[in-house]
Amino acid sequence: MEIVEGIGIGVAVILVALLILFIRRALFTRSGGIIRLSVRVSTILDGRGWSPGFGRFVGDELRWYRMFSFALRPKRVLSRKTLAVERRRLPEGQERLSMPADWVIVRCTSNHAPVEIAMARSTVTGFLSWLEAAPPGAASPRLASQDWPAA
């Protein structure tokens, strides 16, 4: 009888864990501005260290959440103000086995630390547009310092 109870408790724990993962994902994906991407969390071995997840655009930030995590907070937050793209490349070697064929790897610097982000080719265009765009209502410092004639 104790074995059956143990198995029952184990199954219940697994079901609750899966339910929490699906609820967490549903909460984040229903609000829009979500993209699938992978972030390279380790560069020890060539072509390895990629962690799948999804990104959420919130104002001037790209918040990255791991796909298989119970955390409600993002694992990494990239600010548009400090993020700069260095280069784009296609997956090489082992990377081709760990991500879809149409994905592109974007190497960026954030606060002088490099970060590699892999995403679909169609997503890169939106990501670069978000990166170059100014938030609504923001004025360029160059435009704000000039004297404009009164209308």
UniProtKB/TrEMBL annotation:
<keyword id="KW-0812">Transmembrane</keyword>
<feature type="transmembrane region" description="Helical">
    <location>
        <begin position="6"/>
        <end position="27"/>
    </location>
</feature>
<dbReference type="Pfam" id="PF10739">
    <property type="entry name" value="DUF2550"/>
</dbReference>
<protein>
    <recommendedName>
        <fullName>DUF2550 domain-containing protein</fullName>
    </recommendedName>
</protein>
<dbReference type="InterPro" id="IPR019675">
    <property type="entry name" value="DUF2550"/>
</dbReference>
<keyword id="KW-0472">Membrane</keyword>
<keyword id="KW-1133">Transmembrane helix</keyword>
